[in-house]
Amino acid sequence: MKTILVTGATGQLGQCLQKHSKLYPDFSFLFCSSRELDITSKEQLESVFKSNKIDYCINAAAYTNVEQAEKEREKAFRVNADAAADIAEFCREFQAKLIHISTDYVFNGRKDEAYLETDEVDPINVYGASKLKGEEKIQEILKEFFILRTSWLYSEFGHNFYNTILKKAEEKAELNITTSQVGTPTNANDLAKYILQIINSGSAQYGIYHVSNEGEATWYDFAKEILDYSGKKEGVTLNKTGFYQTLAERPGYSVLSKKKTNRTFGPVQNWKISLHQLIDEN
Ligand SMILES: NC(=O)C1=CN([C@@H]2O[C@H](COP(=O)(O)OP(=O)(O)OC[C@H]3O[C@@H](n4cnc5c(N)ncnc54)[C@H](OP(=O)(O)O)[C@@H]3O)[C@@H](O)[C@H]2O)C=CC1
Ligand SMILES: Cc1cn([C@H]2C[C@H](O)[C@@H](COP(=O)(O)OP(=O)(O)O[C@H]3O[C@@H](C)C(=O)[C@@H](O)[C@H]3O)O2)c(=O)[nH]c1=O
């Protein structure tokens, strides 16, 4: 039986992994919240790796507050880079394979077609820089890793753009949503299912992969689709804006090419279809 450690287990992706883990009764999961396992503590990491024979570690723990990271650079790097490196060290020592999640924000957004895994990285905010450092350290330390770059995650769980829009719709708020970023909203349930499929396949095709839904959208397009499909647009004013004031700069274009991922592990569905599924289910 394969034993799978999941860090950050009560975060958005962590909760999606918990939900979909039920489909894998032959796997033994060790879900650890930040309270149960602080990944910045080498002692705590060592203790988990020593007392369990871990085959895979899914690192779903991260510092994800893009705005706050501009003010807490050190903390963002401690969690997203240093702790990721420590996890990689323990994976090497205890022969576990690492599945680490990274982001479209490692790119500067100046390209005008989908980013390949091999394209130049050049983050333009602190969060992106800290995630890139994590990627780099993992590759230096470990051979048996999958770094999965994803984008614009949303789900029924936790704090995300989808839940923010639904909440604002309940409040009948006036929404001003930016059209100045193009990317791909990705249902975290799809990512969770994809990760579990990779483990189940036993693949040894290690490396960096892009795993997001297919297609592209602006945040405005995403908000509009959420409101239209959920039938909650009544009384809500939705405005396009070319500029939404934020502390952190974000890439203008961050669609990820899935050519390599599709070839290796199979397709991921279109973002609109996946969004509709989530709304239908909830
Ligand atoms: N959300 C998004 O839009 C995107 C996310 N990603 C990446 O996907 C992954 C999952 O993101 P998502 O689930 O959305 O993020 P969340 O912020 O929902 O979850 C992150 C989890 O990490 C935990 N965590 C933070 N610091 C530590 C620590 N020191 N030790 C242990 N756990 C810690 C948090 O716990 P607590 O709440 O208790 O602090 C939280 O449960 C991350 O690697 C992220 O960088 C990539 C692209 C898009
Ligand atoms: C709430 C809101 C946001 N926006 C803008 C701000 C920003 O440019 C964009 C998205 O806002 P958010 O703060 O929800 O998203 P942001 O924190 O940028 O999301 C990112 O999170 C990290 C973790 C990732 O890895 C990325 O892939 C990406 O998903 O929408 C509006 O235009 N209007 C609004 O009312």
Automatic annotation (TrEMBL):
<dbReference type="Pfam" id="PF04321">
    <property type="entry name" value="RmlD_sub_bind"/>
</dbReference>
<dbReference type="GO" id="GO:0005829">
    <property type="term" value="C:cytosol"/>
</dbReference>
<comment type="pathway">
    <text>Carbohydrate biosynthesis; dTDP-L-rhamnose biosynthesis.</text>
</comment>
<feature type="domain" description="RmlD-like substrate binding">
    <location>
        <begin position="3"/>
        <end position="281"/>
    </location>
</feature>
<protein>
    <recommendedName>
        <fullName>dTDP-4-dehydrorhamnose reductase</fullName>
        <ecNumber>1.1.1.133</ecNumber>
    </recommendedName>
</protein>
<comment type="similarity">
    <text>Belongs to the dTDP-4-dehydrorhamnose reductase family.</text>
</comment>
<comment type="function">
    <text>Catalyzes the reduction of dTDP-6-deoxy-L-lyxo-4-hexulose to yield dTDP-L-rhamnose.</text>
</comment>
<dbReference type="GO" id="GO:0008831">
    <property type="term" value="F:dTDP-4-dehydrorhamnose reductase activity"/>
</dbReference>
<dbReference type="InterPro" id="IPR036291">
    <property type="entry name" value="NAD(P)-bd_dom_sf"/>
</dbReference>
<keyword id="KW-0521">NADP</keyword>
<dbReference type="InterPro" id="IPR005913">
    <property type="entry name" value="dTDP_dehydrorham_reduct"/>
</dbReference>
<dbReference type="InterPro" id="IPR029903">
    <property type="entry name" value="RmlD-like-bd"/>
</dbReference>
<keyword id="KW-0560">Oxidoreductase</keyword>
<dbReference type="GO" id="GO:0019305">
    <property type="term" value="P:dTDP-rhamnose biosynthetic process"/>
</dbReference>
